């Protein structure tokens, strides 16, 4: 079961966007996200728009996906041009899913190269694909690297078979170091994703997973806390009493262990859940999201954002293909963000990063009420006093553990 989409406003079938959304576009980065909705199985915790189906009939499925994605790329370039957006090279490209590497590597490259032909690509731009450890060969990774990909993000999640079983992950843990090395040999940067807080997972098992990930020496490690979304298989299992979620103290201990082990191994946090070996190996694409830059989302259910106008595509691959093949926008609906909503999102997202939020920006929102808030946060050791003196609000380690409370304190008041 995939999550329900927001209702939003009607989206025009010609894909047009408000003219004011293109104002100042030359000063904003422009990224591309390509959603590949195919998986071998649907994991029990997954809340993304994915399908364990390769062929939906009527010529819609895995074999036709690349051509449909290319058609939407053509559509997007035409919409931006017709709406007066200046030409911009792609800042980053990210293939997510689903499992993008369910597609043949040559199809991924074909989509990427068409995007580059249409928009161009900034020098040294980051081009990433997600992959499951059992979904690629050494040859696939070399094809991707030769075709313009610079980075691969493997969904490791855990090194413990029992934990993977609860998550419905089917890959073999022993394959992770193999694919990491294959990617390195191909010249790709490598990230691995971990999840902590799986029902039944012990602190010792989590430490085992972190140590295993570190031993593979990827350039980047993500450590996400498991969020159980309504409607997922795992949510139903928990509701039935089959599994029990860990308590807050254990979750805090897990994050603390991750910070300790990763920092000792040379990884530094740059976002609450993300650690890299250097600024050059941080996820540039994620920063484009956190900074509310512009991006176009290709594929079923993909979201796009152009300067405060946000829209999302119809979710089902058949509906998506039908729109694209009729030269219509696949957008299901859209919203025009109010300034207060944009402030809300800017603070919520950037406060999670090592860059933090500028005090001048917060001053515009809170006025005279800001200084007492900041002093209280310093006294509670939730924000860094040295960074504050330099005009930035940046979380301390304690602040990262209590990030929701800090965010609530600094968010604009809503009526």
TrEMBL record:
Pfam families cross-referenced by the UniProt entry: Radical_SAM
Annotated ranges, domain Radical SAM core: 24-271
Gene Ontology process terms (BP): porphyrin-containing compound biosynthetic process
Family matches, as InterPro entries: Aldolase_TIM, Coproporphyrinogen-III_oxidase, Elp3/MiaA/NifB-like_rSAM, HemW-like, rSAM, rSAM_sf
SUPFAM superfamilies named in the record: Radical SAM enzymes
UniProt entry keywords in alphabetical sequence: 4Fe-4S, Chaperone, Cytoplasm, Heme, Iron, Iron-sulfur, Metal-binding, S-adenosyl-L-methionine
Top-level taxon in the UniProt lineage: Bacteria
A single GO molecular function term of this UniProt record: metal ion binding
Subcellular location: Cytoplasm
GO cellular component annotations of the record: cytoplasm
Family statement: Belongs to the anaerobic coproporphyrinogen-III oxidase family. HemW subfamily.
Purpose: Probably acts as a heme chaperone, transferring heme to an unknown acceptor. Binds one molecule of heme per monomer, possibly covalently. Binds 1 [4Fe-4S] cluster. The cluster is coordinated with 3 cysteines and an exchangeable S-adenosyl-L-methionine.
Family matches, as NCBIfam families: hemN_rel (TIGR00539)
UniProt-recorded name of the protein: Heme chaperone HemW
